[in-house]
């Protein structure tokens, strides 16, 4: 009996020590403080005050916290002097989707337009097509916005990383129609994501909207497309990219 007690005692002490050292649960990604500020643990919007906030409501994403009525710390709020300047356009120069072609293109004439070619190409399993083979119906798509697995094509949007209206406002209105149509159908600028998040994003750039996850990868992709098409990278977007670079 004594031998058994001596064996059990160190095991018990080890388990007790683990309970003291290891946290019972992971720190929340986002803390909504009692004064209504969203503090992020990581990411380009990482809050310098995260560790100081002791009383909070936890959120899984910054977007969810902001949607609940929270706001960013002052240091991270878009400053009016750093916002991307958008020139005022005349009514004749106003954005219209038709400036980028009439919907998704089917350049090779195989009945699969750009949307469905992207769905077919990006599915991690062989997708199920409709009877005539022109449309993807089911597949397996991993959203870069959330990491969620999507299987129903009707719930998937093909997002323009750089929105068409954003591009128009920042210089695409001076392009030829052919270049704008190429831009609208370029796979480099297209990702398969949740329909709800794509609608939430709208025509916003990264300084106004970021996905719940993979924010720095999204910023890098956005800037990459701007470089490819010689669109301007404004000061606030440069600052956001630098924040991401500093985290790597």
Explain the overall architecture.
- The protein is α+β, with helices and mostly antiparallel strands.
- It has 2 domains: 28-77, no CATH class; 95-247, no CATH class.
- The chain contains 8 helices and 8 strands, in the order αβββααββββααβααα.
- The strands form 3 sheets. A 3-stranded antiparallel β-sheet has the order 2-1-3. A 3-stranded antiparallel β-sheet has the order 4-5-6. It has a two-stranded antiparallel ribbon with strand order 7-8.
- β4 (128-129) and β5 form a beta hairpin.
- α7 crosses α8.
- The model is unreliable at 11-24 and 79-83 (pLDDT under 50).
Core attributes:
single chain; 3-stranded antiparallel sheet; about 15% strand; about 250 residues
Summarize this, please?
By secondary structure, this protein is an alpha+beta fold. It has 8 helices and 8 strands, in the order αβββααββββααβααα.
